[in-house]
Specification:
3 strands; 36% helix; 107 residues; elongated; alpha/beta
Length: 107
């Protein structure tokens, strides 16, 4: 049996124009690829009816060593397989390593 939330989503799928998932926290794009496989397995039949897919946050795209090519493949897969617009929420990655806050010493 499907979990109740997934069953409820399927009943109301005609009311949706997109899906949003949040599974990452300071992860590399291999974790996103794993999540995307699970999303395809659970919701692949609904996604072609959607206009957008939000990959959520936690993408450390500015971290040295982050696999940008894998991220690009994940985005391209969603666009080609389901015809959706893909959104990312990079969050802290936008400001990571952007500077240091320095305050004067109190006397």
């Amino acid at each position: 049996a499907r979990p109740p939330r997934i069953s409820a989503l399927r009943v109301r799928a005609n009311l949706l124009d997109g899906l949003h998932f949040h599974t990452l926290c300071e992860q590399d794009s291999d974790a996103l690829a794993t999540t995307l496989d699970a999303v395809a397995q659970k919701f692949g039949d609904l996604l072609p009816r959607m206009q957008w897919l939000n990959f959520g946050g936690g993408h450390h795209i500015t971290r040295p060593g982050y696999d940008i090519a894998m991220l690009e493949r994940c985005i391209t897969r969603a666009q080609q397989d389901w015809g959706v617009t893909v959104y990312l929420e990079p969050g802290e990655a936008c400001a990571q390593l952007s500077g240091v806050l320095s305050l004067p010493q109190r006397k």
